[in-house]
Amino acid sequence: MDLTNDKKDVVILGIESSCDDTSAAVIRNGVLLSNVTASQAVHENFGGVVPELASRAHEQNIVPVVDQALKQAGVDKSDLSAIAFTRGPGLMGSLLVGVSFAKGMARALGIPMVDVNHLQGHVLAHFIDEKDVERAKPSFPFLCLLVSGGNSQIVLVKAYNDMQVIGQTIDDAAGEAIDKCSKVMGLGYPGGPIIDRLARQGNPKAFTFSRPNIPGYDYSFSGLKTSFLYFLRDQLKEDPQFIEHHKEDLAASLEYAVVDILMKKLRLAVKDLGIRQVAVAGGVSANTGLRNAFYDYAKRYHWEVFIPKFGFTTDNAAMIAITGYYKYLDGDFCSIDKPAFSRVAL
Ligand code: KG4
To answer: Which fold has domain 142-308?
Structure first.
């Protein structure tokens, strides 16, 4: 295979299939041309992602999603410089669909394949350029709060391909805790956007839930989750309609606690490292309370904050394609024998 780039343009097809979104995107010279995502409604009835159903849905979606991404971009597969794909972390069955597809397609076209760490993709979502859109980008080094359904980390980002996790959750992720509390309240799945919507009408100081007390920049959300559960259990004994009567205040107080925990550790890291460029990434960065807290801290503590475009916060292939683009420029390719991985830090 010829790994040298004799084409003028660098055109990357990105493929993401780590959880329950099948997504494909095309990026030319760092500029997004298309970003197509098929989400899987099948999990809603189960209150969480069912891995086997996710894999089957990826199987059904991957060909039409890739086809549409190429068509929307106006790019022929012969124009592609490389194919980037999420190699992990994620659900193994889901990952295997995207990984196998990407490897097969790259091999058939005789072009390089670039493996992408999903978490690095979330961070580099800040560098996706769109035609005719001006967006400020962080400069290196910066700190990134990476908060999703599976991760809560503070990342020191030194360069596109050089990142260090300086703090992370020792148990539940922030999104996972919100989703679980929402499930206990009998709300739909995923809970994050529902809690966000309800919280807008509630009082964040109505109820207080426990905060973790752990050293350094690490997080913990299991104590908060348990305190939420016990509180509900006790209140429901007195008033079986407690959740119905107080769902806005419960959502607002839960969100307030999660945001407070996230921001306090982030502030500690900013102070210690003396880095004032602070970004947020991952699905939970769509949260209104967290976004407002970023703007508030920016004013109060003179941070320069970077919040990704809404559509780039949850899982998408544009972030995989942009990461693939920077790895491609570094000549950092993947061999066909590199397997998918379900768990690993950044
Ligand atoms: O990054 P992501 O799409 O997938 C993972 O890689 O985990 O994040 C999904 C998480 C879920 O826990 C979901 O409830 C949460 O992001 N989420 C939100 C909001 N939108 C999505 N959490 C709070 N507020 C939101 N608006």
So the answer is: Nucleotidyltransferase; domain 5 (3.30.420)
